Amino acid sequence: MLKSFLVSTVKNYHTVVKIGNDNTPKDPLNPKSNYTKVIIEDPYNNREIIARVAKKQKGVYVWETETLDGKSLYVGHSINLYNRICSYFMPSILKTKERRVLRYFNKYGFSKIKLTIYLMDNSVSLEEVVELEQHFIDSLNPNLNVDLVARSSGYHDKMSQEIRARLRKERGTPVFVYDAKDFTLLYIFESKTHMYNTINIHHKTLNDCIDSGLLYLGTFFLSLDQIEESTKTNLLSLDKIKAIVSEKREIHGALLIKHQLEASKAILAEFKDDSRLNREFGSLSSLARELKGDRQVIREYLSGIKSGYYRGKWKFTYLGPKTGGGNILNFNII
Q1: Domain shared by 135 and 195, yes or no
Q2: Strand partners, 60
Q3: 130 and 179 together in one domain
């Protein structure tokens, strides 16, 4: 018998976790695999719940929705569920429209989507994860899956032949490096250790990118899974990927320094109709905090990208750097 309990209530949605194998007609018993079943309504707006339950987790995910065209399902697997699931929300993935499921999301959006996650023990092998995916493909017959055979190395035969040759040499879990603009596969590192030693990425930075889907240097999407929705491949040589990373690191570092310098400047906030309400703030952060505003939007008013008055009331002007600290900016971008 399944146990059920409440995980959280976010934006008025209740998320229920069911423990064990579900032997209802819609979710037949699979005696070979144990899992925890997590059902999340409106996953796009409840990504904090996905993060809570799926970071660093292996398992299977199912997208499900009903429209006037009927019920639609898609089944996938991952050895890093949070990163993989949230990749579907990225505009650069959606705009490729390479797969049926992406064309569906582009047409209908995520507002009526239900996400079911089947969390497996982290000790299971990739083959066991793929076996569970195949079980749900067979039992649910998902209409958004083009290929009804679960695979561990991706769907696209044209791409997988090139990748398989690289993966045969793997000694650990590979790290796939994608260009975030169009999700072109650029490189496959043999393991995290290989990536640490080759491009000098800090282990915390790498884990943050993989676990949370953060873009490395604002350019690269890193994944422990091959992104099947992208058919574009431009595998670079090791020297080439190292050169590109080095170039992006310099650009990214310069941007961070620029933002830090801007953040350290004092700002005059002038109220449109009453100069008595004018205020001086020591930094962009303190201004945004006081007005409960978005720092990037305020920065756009300060730089002239946006014109007029912020919220129709405020005009912002940089006064210059803060005095007294004498701090030297020093960045080591890794």
Answers
A1: no
A2: 77, 118
A3: no
Give the pairing type, strands 13-19 and 114-120: unpaired
- Name every residue whose Cβ is closer than 8 Å to that of residue 292 and which is 6 or more positions away in sequence: none
The one-letter amino acid code at 22 reads: D
Report the distance separating Cα 272 and Cα 40, nearest Å. 45
Q: What is each CA distance from 298 to 30, 265, 288, in whole angstroms?
A: 54, 13, 7
Q: Residue 29 carries which side chain, given as an amino acid letter?
A: L
Q: How many domains does the chain have?
A: 3
Question: Which sign does the torsion angle of CA 116, 121, 125, 127 carry?
Answer: negative
Distances (CA, A) of 156 to 151, 233, 313, 330: 10, 11, 54, 45
Between CA 176 and CA 244 the distance in angstroms is: 15
Q: Return the closest-CA partner of residue 290 out of 318, 263, 269, 260.
A: 269
Q: Quick one: which of 273, 276, 274, 266 has its CA closest to 316?
A: 266
Q: Cα separation of 176 and 187, whole Å?
A: 6
Q: 140 and 103 in one domain?
A: yes
Q: What is the largest CA-CA distance in the chain?
A: 73
Same domain for 276 and 253: no
Structure tokens at 16: 């229920």
> 109-134 pLDDT, tens per residue?
888 899 999 999 989 998 999 999 99
pTM more than 0.90? no
Between the two ends of the chain, the Cα-to-Cα distance in Å is: 49
Q: How far is CA 134 from CA 33, 38, 145, 284, in A?
A: 12, 19, 11, 52
Count of CB atoms situated within 10 Å of the CB of 244: 19
The token duo for 321 is: 């750097």
* Sequence-ordered list of residues with C-beta below 8 angstroms from that of 293, at least 6 positions apart, any chain: 287, 310, 311
Residues of the domain holding 216: 153-257
Q: Are both 147 and 3 inside the same structural domain? A: yes
Residue-wise pLDDT tens digits, 225-249: 888 777 788 999 999 999 999 999 8
Give a yes or no: residue 146 inside a domain.
yes
CATH number at residue 286: 1.10.10.10
Q: Confirm whether 327 is domain-assigned.
A: no
Instruction: Indicate if 220 and 315 belong to the same structural domain.
Output: no
